[in-house]
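To illustrate the input format used throughout this study, we show a single complete record. The first block contains the structure-token representation of the backbone; no residue identities are included at this stage. The design step must infer an amino acid for every position from geometry alone.
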């Protein structure tokens, strides 16, 4: 009798304990899910714990598709909402409000709101993640590295890297399977930023350097990193306590060592170059060694920004260039037209690939803009309100301090309301006449306002110069391995990437 009573007591205890645990878990998983309802913004009911991004987390849907789906679910809303795991976000769909947030009322949205612990993620100290006054100070220190004068001085380095790219294509042109252009554009862009920004001759095009391998580690995402990233979204304090690194520690340690040696070498030997590394050395002297300001900077802040400039200056350019080659291969009429413009303009400037050439290629600009539109390699712009904000044109709608918002760049770039037949590659969308038909706030591949990409002009000149050199040497064709349409990597954490690479053929142009 007693064993039976004891068994029933244990069973009841287990059942009650299980119910209590399940109730607590459910409460934790759904405790934030009333916030969007309180704001009275349209949103789809969230899944406990995963919010509205379950398919993305499960690897069944890319980041582009997930945010595109949310964007399309509320076609008449200026602002809609969604939950990324447990965190409520406002998605800004209206171009006028987007312009206000990124430009007119920027001071309300100066912070990105991306929370990473600098002690376990060195890049958290970089310009991209920095907030408030610290961001303003560092941007001011780095801006001189991207002036027009500095860019003009870098053109000969970009040309030298482009010539090495041409030589590599010539040496591999008879490969029957074609050339995987994502790889060679990545190697090219790494060489360019290495030599232009830091005076490093890497020759990654011919030798897959340690620089390139570690850049891919930073922008890649293995199972371990994905789990840590997911855990950090739900339990940030756990990630911080156990010092779990999303970015492989060996990659950040490698770059920390390289750039520390570079800065020490230049400082000790009084080496002065007209590049971005020199601006970082100057920033170190003013912000770390001689600082009397309220904001405290360390050597790690300087190294973090060096890594940010290297990685941020190579991967987006590489992806955009590869996608551009792909579209030119599939659209021969566009390829011929851009080549004719480059050739005729080059003749006007004496056959020299100069900054004057880059500034006089309107159709090339249109092709690149259409590449940026169709392949928005960065999916969203993220901001966080720093003070209570009354949204213009929405009566009394208030965004509270600390609210995270998303500006869906890729979704807007593919909205047929602004870009009819958005899957079609059509540079004519970017004639002056067509641009004037669209409202501001519908095209911003480099961001907009004070917090736009610091390397925007550098990237534009680099892309135009390498296109000019490659297209005067080669015609580009699809090959048997060319994927039509492209499949995209669903688990890419940062940039849009082709899942199986981009394979093309190149044919020399005979004069």
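Output of the design step:
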């Amino acid at each position: 009798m007693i064993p039976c009573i004891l068994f029933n007591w244990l069973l009841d205890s287990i059942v009650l304990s299980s119910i209590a645990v399940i109730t607590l878990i459910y409460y934790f998983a759904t405790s934030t899910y009333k916030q969007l309802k309180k704001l009275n913004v349209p949103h789809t009911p969230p899944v406990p714990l995963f919010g509205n991004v379950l398919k993305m987390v499960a690897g069944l849907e890319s980041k582009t598709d997930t945010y595109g789906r949310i964007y399309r679910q509320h076609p008449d809303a200026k602002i809609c909402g969604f939950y990324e795991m447990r965190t409520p976000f406002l998605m800004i769909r209206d171009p006028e409000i987007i312009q206000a947030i990124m430009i007119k009322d920027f001071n309300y949205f100066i912070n990105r709101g991306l929370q990473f612990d600098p002690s376990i993620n060195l890049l958290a100290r970089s310009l991209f993640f920095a907030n408030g006054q610290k961001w303003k100070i560092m941007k001011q220190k780095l801006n001189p590295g991207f002036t027009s004068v500095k860019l003009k001085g870098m053109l000969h380095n970009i040309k030298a890297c482009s010539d090495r790219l041409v030589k590599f294509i010539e040496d591999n042109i008879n490969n029957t399977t074609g050339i995987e252009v994502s790889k060679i554009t990545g190697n090219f862009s790494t060489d360019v930023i290495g030599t232009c920004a830091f005076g490093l001759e890497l020759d990654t095009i011919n030798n897959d350097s340690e620089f390139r391998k570690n850049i891919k580690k930073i922008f890649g995402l293995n199972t371990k990193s994905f789990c840590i990233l997911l855990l950090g979204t739900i339990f940030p304090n756990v990630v911080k306590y156990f010092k779990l690194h999303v970015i492989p520690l060996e990659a950040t340690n490698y770059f920390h060592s390289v750039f520390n040696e570079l800065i020490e070498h230049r400082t000790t030997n009084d080496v002065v170059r007209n590049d971005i590394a020199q601006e970082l050395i100057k920033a170190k002297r003013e912000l770390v060694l001689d600082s009397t300001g309220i904001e405290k900077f360390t050597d790690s802040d300087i190294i973090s920004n060096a890594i940010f400039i290297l990685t941020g200056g190579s991967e987006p350019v590489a992806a955009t260039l590869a996608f551009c080659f792909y579209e030119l291969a599939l659209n021969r009429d566009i390829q011929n037209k851009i080549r004719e413009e480059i050739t005729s303009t080059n003749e006007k400037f004496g056959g020299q690939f100069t900054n004057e050439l880059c500034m006089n290629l309107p159709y090339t600009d249109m092709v690149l803009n259409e590449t940026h539109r169709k392949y928005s390699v960065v999916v969203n712009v993220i901001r966080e309100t720093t003070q209570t904000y009354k949204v213009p044109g929405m009566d009394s709608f208030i965004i509270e301090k600390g609210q995270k918002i998303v500006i869906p760049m890729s979704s807007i770039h593919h909205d047929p309301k602004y870009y009819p037949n958005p899957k079609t590659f059509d540079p004519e969308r970017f004639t002056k006449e067509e641009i004037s038909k669209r409202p501001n706030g519908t095209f911003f591949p480099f961001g907009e306002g004070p917090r736009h990409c610091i390397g925007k002009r550098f990237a534009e000149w680099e892309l135009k110069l390498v296109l000019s050199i490659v297209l005067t040497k080669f015609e580009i064709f699809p090959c048997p391995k060319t994927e039509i349409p492209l499949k995209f990597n669903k688990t890419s954490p940062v940039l849009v990437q082709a899942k199986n690479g981009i394979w093309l053929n190149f044919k020399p142009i005979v004069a």
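Structural context for interpreting the output: The CA atoms of residues 191 and 203 lie 6 Å apart. The chain has a mean pLDDT of 89.
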